[in-house]
Amino acid sequence: MKKMKKVITAAVALMMTAALAATAYAADYGDTVTAPAVSSSSTESAGSTEDDAAVSAKLDDAITNPTTAEDGTKAAVVEVDTLDRNFSIKPSALKELKAEGAVLKITSKEAEVEIDPATITKARKVDLSMKVYGSKTRSVVDFKSSSDFGCEVKVTVKNCKMTVAKLKTCSVYCDGEVVADTVEINENNKPVITVTKGGTYEIK
User: Fold this and answer.
1) pLDDT per residue over 30-49, tens digit each?
2) Fewer C-beta neighbours within 10 Å, C or N terminus of the chain?
């Protein structure tokens, strides 16, 4: 009889232990899990569906096989998910653009970039890697490079958050110095800057 009581007592204890463990697990499972903070650049890189090699191949193909419009103008058009990556134009590619008379047009979710072959004075490597961000009071185009491009690079800030009224009061700064007193605004009410070298450009 005593042996039977011991068995029953042990079984009850085991069941209570299992019940407590299940309750603790349920409590932990119900807690809210907070994701670690992620920077905007990390988010963009993580969300990118293209690696640098694929983008480079796409760029080379567009330059080698530019499209010709009905009016005879040529354009090498490239669409990428982001310019916040390693993104460079080779000197040979710029020579090819100039020889073909083809305008290079690159579009991403943050910005549109254009190089007119007529502005190419020296075929050198042009690093177009950039971060484009801002607020309701400023827009920033932050090139990875600070070197001279040897050509004009036109950047349209697609993700600009400023109103047209605000843009009309802005100037353009490069590394803290004023380079233009006014800002060009396109037909879509987005700011456009034309630069010949890298650096950090602010519209504010």
Assistant:
1) 333 333 333 333 334 444 56
2) N
